[in-house]
Amino acid sequence: MVDAVIFDLDGVIVDSEPVWEEVRRAYVAAHGGTWQSDTQRRLMGMSTGEWARYLSDELGVDRGADQVAREVVDEMAQRYAARVPVIDDADQVVRRLAARWPLGLASSSPTRLIAATLAATGLTEVFGATLSTEETARGKPAPDVYLAVAERLGVDPARCAAVEDSSNGVRSAAAAGMRVVAVPHGSYPLDPDAATLAAVTLGSIHELTVETVATLG
């Protein structure tokens, strides 16, 4: 039985992964680093501190991690001020599920971008608990953020459904003991090992219905 549903944000409610990739790729190029073929896949799910250190230490950006994080997030905030890239009707999907279950949000986005997104979509009050991996010891694929959100909701993680798009996100929710609904982004398919961890895989967020979640438990 499912007692709560916990959503990821990037790639599930907002189509932000292409924006993150564009911003970070340009930042790396502008500051002496070298973007690798697997960089975007590796970055998806990392906390702010983790990806900032990765750009600084692994990709050769000539900035310290704190400065990297501040400058990249500043650029993302400017993009969001102009337009938050909400996936069509994702906010309506969230509201439909909120009528049935308590909802949580477990995101790798910085706290201020989470707040901006939820305000822009009118979803701030829909979630009973929201948390950024900025506030956990480890980002995804570690289970920390999902376990913390379940605790804040007062629900056993094993009785939660998680909605994720990325391989590291699926791994994170599965490691927390949750039943995972995978909604992969067309440009970033799941790795084979992550695909096997999902209880169900959907072609789009529009396929996420109350009935789909109810069948998980």
SSE map:
Layout: E1 4-7, H1 17-30, H2 39-43, H3 48-58, H4 65-82, H5 90-98, E2 103-107, H6 111-121, E3 129-132, H7 144-153, E4 160-164, H8 167-175, E5 179-182, H9 192-195, E6 200-201, H10 210-214
Parallel strand pairs: 1-2, 1-4, 2-3, 4-5, 5-6
Helix pairs in contact: 1-4, 3-4, 4-6
Beta strand count? 6
Strand line-up in the sheet with most strands: 3-2-1-4-5-6
- Helix percentage range: 40-55%
The fraction of residues assigned to DSSP E strands is 5-15%
What is the average per-residue confidence, as pLDDT, rounded to a whole number?
95
Form type: globular
**Uncertain residue segments:** none
Distance between the termini: 4 Å
Query: What kind of sheet is the major sheet?
Result: 6 strands, parallel
Number of helices: 10
Radius of gyration: 16 Å
Can you describe what's shown?
This protein has 217 residues and is of the alpha/beta class. It contains 10 helices and 6 strands, in the order βαααααβαβαβαβαβα. It has helices at residues 17-30, 39-43, 48-58, 65-82, 90-98, 111-121, 144-153, 167-175, 192-195, 210-214; strands spanning 4-7, 103-107, 129-132, 160-164, 179-182, 200-201. The chain has a 6-stranded parallel β-sheet with strand order 3-2-1-4-5-6, with helices on both faces. α1 packs across α4, α3 (48-58) crosses α4 and α4 (65-82) runs parallel beside α6 (111-121). The longest helix is centred in the middle third of the chain and has 18 residues, at 65-82. The relative contact order is 0.19.
